[in-house]
Amino acid sequence: MAELKFRSPKGVHDLLPAENQYMTYIKKAVRHRARQAGYKRIDPPIFEDRSLFERGIGEHTDIVEKELFGVGRKGADEVLDFALRPEFTAGICRSYIQHGMQELPQPVELYSIGPCFRYDRPQKGRFRQFHQFDFEVIGLSDPSIDAQMIQVAWKIFGDLKIQKRLTLQINNIGATEDRKAYVDALKEFFSGKERNLPEIDRKRVQTNPLRLLDSKEEDTQILVKMAPKLSQFVNEESKKYHSDLLEYLTELDIPFTENHGLVRGLDYYNQTVFEFWDRSTGAQNAVGGGGRYDYLIEQLGGKPTPGVGFAVGMERVMWHMQEAGVEAPFKDQVDVFVAQLGPDAKKKCLKIVSELRELGIHTVGALGEASLKSQMRLADRFQARYCLLLGQIEVKEGTIILRDMIAGKQKQMKFEKAIPEVVKLVGKESLDTYSIQDKLGEFSDPGEG
Ligand code: HAM
Q1: What is the average pLDDT across 370-390?
Q2: Model pTM score
Q3: pLDDT at 62 over 90
Q4: Which of the listed ranges 120-129, 258-267, 312-321, 339-348 does the model predict with the highest average pLDDT?
């Protein structure tokens, strides 16, 4: 193939119509489960002050240190320093503070769906632009909140028929002070042993020793086995919180695996952390993850307010659905192809196309000048179920031809009969009608046509 002049950037993909069928289906499940559980939709902007992410996610996390996509602009008198959002949580918490949501009845339950950006090294399941759906419950700290929220994720995986492919890994990383004490203990354990660590992990001993725990480097893993364990530092209250949560999950029939090594790659967590892993590959390419962040809002300048949330990578969900052979419903079929010949026929067809669409029938009209024969070929390529043909003779006679493209049979009928006949054939239950008009009712502007 000749060299293309333009291609999408590395690690960034088009969501083609076939993939959008999956995306639409996933979003539908997400919206449905969100509404059932009282979550309201929020869409924070796609870019924000870089410092929001630095503050929120943590300066020494991979996401901030290596993966932020900067967006800037040097004006005459100011330098704008933005970054594309690598995730939703920091933006949603900023919005919670900015819009005084602490005045609303608590907890505030919010969800979002949309693109995120990380300058990751592109590989299987890892992209530079990807999509997340994200759920946050802000304003209350209770294990029953964590359990209910995890259940929403679990239900969505059930709806999408991929639940059996996933495992819920769960841990409690204690209070911030516990984590600090543990980080100090880790630093102490590793100091003097840096020589035995690979280059990438050597720096982490000082900057973010928790990252050593899920290091992919073999030498590091050997040392980690001998290092102090986080569970030794977790306070009693957190342990109680955790055992309550596990009890609630059991009550809700949600299977889980306790994983004391799970720490997550973002700094804002305390207490509960969890991830949804691929049953067969484990930690690599987790489908989703989340946890509690009781200090984040305060850190971003709000009143101390606890929160918990999770996000799921939609491309990874789509991959699992495809692997599992789950087909997203195909709703883009062409019901009717309208072919015509001659200026009078063209005019009449314009009207018939519009009326069919209004009735909820997917209609494509080739209103060009091609011969009837080549229009029929086109109808075939569009995989249209039926074809309506209107030539000069039919216009004169006041008739129209209806062709069943699968049976390969056609019949001529009175022009006025065509629409009711097509509606009958397509079937009332298959009509794609749009109900927004009914819902808006009295507010709608009837307009023209
Ligand atoms: P995260 O674990 O960084 O958590 O990301 C959540 C999910 O986003 C991952 O499990 C993965 O499916 C998907 N994901 C992340 N990076 C990529 C990538 N480069 N390519 C494809 N998919 C990716 C968070 O983002 C937290 N904000 C979750 C959260 C919400 N915690 C509390 N509230």
Answers
A1: 93
A2: 0.91
A3: no
A4: 312-321
**Measured distance CA(178)–CA(199) in Å, rounded:** 28
Backbone angles phi, psi at 329, to 5 degrees: -60, 140
- CB of 267 shorter than 6 A to ligand 1: no
How many alpha carbons lie under 13 Å from residue 99 in its C-beta half-sphere? Answer: 11
DSSP per-residue codes, 282-337: BTTT-SEEEEE-TTHHHHTTS----EEEEEEEHHHHHHHHHHTTPPPP------EE
Q: Which atom of ligand 1 is nearest to the CA of 312?
A: 7
C-alpha–C-alpha distance, residues 20 and 17, integer Å: 5
Q: Which of 279, 267, 253, 244 is nearest to 162 (CA)?
A: 279
d(CA 249, CA 325): 28
Contact 338, 382 (CB under 8 A): no
Distance (Å, whole) CA 338 – CA 388 = 5
288 C-beta closer than 6 A to ligand 1: yes
Check if the beta carbon of residue 131 is closer than 8 Å to that of residue 114: yes
- Strands (DSSP E) contained in 355-408 are 363-366, 386-390, 399-404
Separation of 76 CA from ligand 1 center, angstroms?
37
Which of 378, 257, 292, 296 lies closest to 55, judged by CA? 296
Torsion sign, CA atoms 20, 26, 32, 35: negative
Q: Look at 205 and 25; give whichever has higher pLDDT.
A: 25
Worst-scoring range by mean pLDDT, 257-266, 289-298, 308-317, 436-445? 436-445
Q: Which atom of ligand 1 is nearest to the CA of 67?
A: 19
- 178 pocket-lining for ligand 1 (C-beta < 6 Å): no
